[in-house]
Design a protein that fits this description.
It is a single chain. By secondary structure, the protein is an alpha/beta fold. Helices cover 50% and strands 20% of the residues. The chain contains 18 helices and 16 strands. It has an 8-stranded mixed beta barrel with strand order 8-9-11-12-13-14-15-16, surrounded by 4 helices. A 5-stranded mixed sheet has the order 2-3-1-6-7, with helices on both faces. A two-stranded antiparallel ribbon has the order 4-5. Helix 6 (160-176) links the parallel strand 6 and strand 7 (182-184). The longest helix has 23 residues, at 259-281. The protein starts with 8 loop residues before the first helix and ends in an 8-residue tail after the last helix.
Length: 456
């Protein structure tokens, strides 16, 4: 008998190391996304075999302000922090649970079996409590927090990828709600988010395909009841949903950046409508149109150049166009906006400060920025009673505007008594449902021709 003996210890160790690295995070030594998903698949299958009498849960944990640690102490210190973080999280979970590092500063916990969601919430509370203790990074005490999203087989889909997706969605909701908190996934919230996502896509298409329409709300001379101008307001009539409220799609447009294309479209549409009025009725009968410009558009776009191009393409005089912006827009980037407004005014375009009185530094803006028109927010008008505080404030604003040479427009007029008070205060202009709702271009054309519905 001849025996051959070969020592394969090195090969077996190498094979084991390769297998370990394939399923574990190199930095923390914890399971990685692949192994976590495999274990989650097994846990879901076990729950289904037991007739869903027990559930399993996924907790996605994201470190708040981790980027600041890297920027302050360096990436090697950030790596040491992640190693310590993994040890902390490991102490917060049960022996039957699985901790994994999914990527960067994101960890996940698999609660493989529970009977009551309270068990899962207890784990998240332990994590938050543990994060209240400082970490020592090279002699520096570092405090941080985490945002946690939770999805369970009781409230979410049972497919592993769906559970991870839903927990991640809940985690981002926790971050959006102020960080350092736990959010449990609810299907209705996710449905709303999906609906918003589809709405964003459709809004982009609507802008590209010119499916939006500019409506016009008259601005009235309060002394003569004659038409003084219009405010252009974007309206979206969805092919399936019908009328979509601006309160729904304007914030979405600002959040996604679509507001830049939307703002360009509105300026162009207003200028072409004004051109039609000038051609049909002569320049003597045309009136200016106010177009709202978002602070985000001022930040991301060359608004002065856009206005100049719109005027040039339509061939109208700058005196027929007015730009409206809010105090919050000015506060976001005062230097850039001031430069842009000065360029716009050189084109003959006037500038209106919208929602005046709702911010913190309104009076300061009146002499610091090139403002021609002050629009009083409807919140003042709604509370207006002869002799009360809003009445006295408006009295002061009227005197101030008169001394500075500004026009004053009161918004949200729905009551004749309020209109009479404003006339007594010597306010020049107003707009609101008492006179007219925003109307389509053809109806606005009739008003320009002299068919004034508020005088019939």
């Amino acid at each position: 008998m001849i025996c051959t003996i070969e020592d394969q210890t090195a090969e077996k160790l190498a094979e084991r190391n390769l297998l370990h690295h394939a399923f574990h995070d190199a930095l923390t030594g914890q399971p990685n996304r692949v192994l976590f998903r495999n274990k989650l698949e097994e846990a879901v299958a076990d729950c289904q075999r037991e007739g869903n009498q027990t559930g399993c849960a996924v907790l996605i944990i994201n470190i708040d302000r981790f980027q600041q640690i890297n920027e302050s102490f360096g990436h090697s210190a950030g790596d040491r922090f992640l190693i310590s973080m993994a040890s902390t999280l490991r102490r917060c979970i049960r022996s039957s649970d699985t901790l994994a590092r999914l990527s960067g500063d994101e960890f996940a916990i698999l609660v493989s079996r529970f009977k009551d969601v309270e068990e899962v919430e207890m784990i998240s509370r332990r994590v938050h409590e543990a994060m209240q203790q400082p970490y020592d990074l090279d002699g520096n005490e570092v405090f941080t927090s985490v945002s946690i999203g939770v999805a369970t087989t009781l409230s979410s889909a049972t497919h592993p990828e769906d559970l991870i997706r839903d927990a991640d969605f809940a985690m981002h909701r926790a971050k959006g709600a102020g960080k350092s908190r736990t959010e449990i996934y609810h299907r209705d919230s996710h449905q709303r988010a999906r609906s918003q996502f589809h709405l964003e896509t459709e809004l982009r298409r609507a802008v590209e395909r010119n499916e939006l329409e500019l409506y016009y709300q008259p601005i009235i001379d309060l002394k003569t009841s004659q038409l003084h101008g219009f405010e252009g307001l974007t309206r979206w009539i969805h092919r399936e949903r019908g009328f979509v409220s601006p309160a729904e799609f304007i914030p979405l447009a600002e959040e996604t950046g679509v507001i830049v294309a939307l703002g360009r479209w509105a300026l162009k549409a207003a200028c072409h409508q004004i051109k039609a009025w000038v051609d049909e009725n002569s320049a003597d009968h045309a009136v200016p149109v106010n177009v709202n410009v978002s602070g985000i558009q001022f930040a991301r776009d060359n608004v002065a150049a856009v206005v100049e191009k719109a005027l040039e393409e339509s061939g109208i005089d700058g005196r027929f166009l007015r730009i409206e912006l809010t105090e919050s827009a000015i506060m976001a980037n005062p230097m850039r906006i001031s430069e842009s407004l000065n360029r716009i005014r050189k084109l003959g375009v006037k500038v209106a400060l919208d929602d005046f009185g709702t911010g913190y530094s309104s009076l300061n803006y009146l002499h610091q920025f090139p403002i021609d028109v002050i629009k009083i927010d409807r919140s003042f008008i709604n509370q207006l009673e002869r002799g009360n505080a809003p009445y006295k404030i408006l009295q002061m604003i009227g005197m101030l505007a008169s001394n500075l040479g500004h026009e004053v427009v009161a918004e949200g007029l729905e009551d004749l008594e309020h209109i009479n008070m404003l006339r007594d205060l010597d306010f020049g202009y107003g707009q609101g449902f008492y006179f007219s709702k925003p109307v389509a271009g053809k109806d606005a054309t009739e008003i320009v021709k002299g068919n004034l519905p508020w005088r019939t």
